[in-house]
Every structure is written in structure tokens, then in C-alpha cells.
């Protein structure tokens, strides 16, 4: 089932480069690439290379503390790399009411335009 913790998603194919993507950052733990349907001039997805049951933030456990920190820290690094010096937004959609569509945790990094609040 799509919500099974170990079920692969399209993001596994992106990490493995079976599906091409516009990669902006990669290290041993984290992969980041441009969203195919950008909601802002900069729209990047930051994901763990190994999902380890982390389909979404609601499934986080103590063993995920390090990777969760790395995902957010990578968002900051990429924001700097992208020149988002006047501000940016990070978003994690979770579950159906959060509009999550891919069940491999990902941080959205959005910038390059004025963001609004509340987001709607
Ligand atoms: P969610 O709605 O789960 O928070 O975000 C999933 C994001 O993945 C969406 O913004 C969607 O545009 C993006 N996405 C889905 N499939 C692909 C793909 O094949 N390539 C890229 N680059 N982005 C994708």
C-alpha cells in the first residue's frame, strides 16, 4: 500500500537517478532537487536518501532526530546558495489534510517571491 513505511516512492527513483531531476545538493545522507511543479521561483525538495520509515513527519521517532536536523540545516545551506537573503519558507506537508502526495518525507524550500501568511 502507498502508505507502507518501506514502500518505494518516485523519490527513490530520483535519488537513484533512474528518473532525471535538477539536483541542487547531494551528500551521503541528503538529496535535494528542484520541484517539477514549482510554486515559487525557487522551489526545492530536500529529502533523506534513506527513508527508514519516515514516510512523513507524523512518523518521526527518536532515531530520526539526526536526519531531521540535517534536512532543515540543508534547507538553510541551499537558501544561501540560491541567494534567498531576504527570506524564504520551509514547509513539510503531512497526510491528506496537509496535502502530502509523496510518502517519503521532504522539506519544501520556497523563495524568490513574497510569501503570504496565512498560507491557505
Ligand atoms: P507534497 O505534496 O507531497 O508535499 O510534495 C510532493 C512534491 O513532489 C510536489 O510539489 C510535486 O510537484 C513534486 N514531485 C512529484 N513528482 C515529482 C518528480 O517526478 N520530479 C520532481 N522534481 N518533483 C516531483
Describe the model.
This is HIT domain-containing protein. One of its GO terms (molecular function) is adenylylsulfatase activity. The structure is a single chain. By secondary structure, this protein is an alpha+beta fold. It has a single domain (10-111), classed as HIT-like (HIT family, subunit A, 2-Layer Sandwich). The chain contains 2 helices and 5 strands; from the N terminus they run αβββαββ. The chain has a 5-stranded antiparallel sheet with strand order 1-2-3-5-4, with helices on one face. β1 (23-26) and β2 (30-34) form a beta hairpin. The longest helix has 17 residues, at 65-81. The model has no long low-confidence stretch (mean pLDDT 96). The structure holds guanosine-5'-monophosphate. The site of guanosine-5'-monophosphate (5GP) has 15 residues, from α1 and β2.
List keywords for this structure.
120 residues; alpha+beta; 20% strand; globular; binds guanosine-5'-monophosphate
Assign the CATH architecture: 2-Layer Sandwich
Mean pLDDT: 96
Low-confidence stretches: none
Order of helices and strands: HEEEHEE
As a percent range, the share of strand residues is 15-25%
Q: How much helix is in the residues?
A: 10-25%
CATH topology: HIT family, subunit A
Which superfamily, in CATH terms, is the homologous superfamily?
Answer: HIT-like
Distance between the termini: 29 Å
As laid out across the biggest beta sheet, the strand order is 1-2-3-5-4
Biggest sheet architecture? 5 strands, antiparallel
Q: What is the C-level CATH assignment?
A: Alpha Beta
Number of strands: 5
Q: Please state the structural category.
A: alpha+beta
Q: In the residues, how many domains can be counted?
A: 1
Overall morphology:
globular
